[in-house]
Amino acid sequence: xxxxxxxxxxxxxxxxxxxxxxxxxxxxxxxxxxxxxxxxxxxxxxxxxxxxxxxxxxxxxxxxxxxxxxxxxxxxxxxxxxxxxxxxxxxxxxxxxxxxxxxxxxxxxxxxxxxxxxxxxxxxxxxxxxxxxxxxxxxxxxxxxxxxxxxxxxxxxxxxxxxxxxxxxxxxxxxxxxxx
Length: 180
Known about the structure:
Elements: H1 2-22, H2 41-50, E1 56-59, E2 64-72, E3 79-87, E4 92-102, H3 110-123, E5 128-131, E6 137-145, H4 152-178
Antiparallel strand pairs: 1-2, 2-3, 3-4, 4-6, 5-6
Helix pairs in contact: 2-4
């Protein structure tokens, strides 16, 4: 009896599958809906909206997305460019503040600035300061892992924290990079 029920269920499945495919007329216009998006992109946009942060997000591919938003520092009044790069491949959201400071490789102030970046990295728990020797860009960055889920509370905390840390260290890093 069980074998008969399983056989009938399988037959119904295979008979109904082609019928549903035939429901779309051959001359129907192509489907223009947006293609597959990275898994947590909608959640990222929802959380940024919940925080009342004006932002722009775009799916770069089926597995990668990029979001950007401005953050105005309270103490510096400087507007920081905050970026989020989300990847389903690495299961991470990479937060960074672009051009927090500049330290050109051949500048006389660069060794002192790099030394201070290392001191700060030693004391920072989640954030880190990065230096690109090619163009001298100093970034403040953070990572959120999304391998098991999208932690909304952690995301909100990182969004709030990256801007405040940029504001905290911007003046000191600017002073070090321009001192002679």
